[in-house]
Amino acid sequence: MDIDSYKKGDYTVFRFREDVVLNSDLADLKKRIERHLAEGATNIAIAFTRSSYLYTRSIAMLIACLEMIKDAGGHLAIVEANNDILDILTVIDFDRMIRIVGSEEELVSSPSVAQP
Q: How far is CA 51 from CA 22, 77, 91, 115, in A?
């Protein structure tokens, strides 16, 4: 997967440059998050493309990433999620475990929300 990463305030943002679809393998995202956590980053934000869609495999990988981030004492945020992703995250109650923001500006301007 083509993913950019950069710092935005207290967060390391991982921005997908290609759509997440049924057969997308998010293992690279997980490895990159693991590497950033090992380097001391704790707040991670993920930004999907406007046409991305989450399927069982990608949801499972997001849950694994959330657990790693929580174990490191950090927070996970989703930035600029499209309506399909928002709906899925709400249905599985993932929106109660992570921070969802509409923009990178909102990510850095509003305080982090404690995760359960």
A: 12, 18, 19, 27
List the domain boundaries for the chain. 3-109
The whole-model pTM stands at 0.90
The burial class, CB within 10 Å (0-12 / 13-18 / 19+), for 42 is: middle
Q: Residue 25: what pLDDT?
A: 87
How many angstroms separate the CA atoms of 34 and 40, rounded?
10
Amino acid at the residue 8: K
Rounded Cα distance, 71 and 75, in Å: 10
Q: State the fold for domain 3-109.
A: Transcription Regulator spoIIAA (3.30.750)
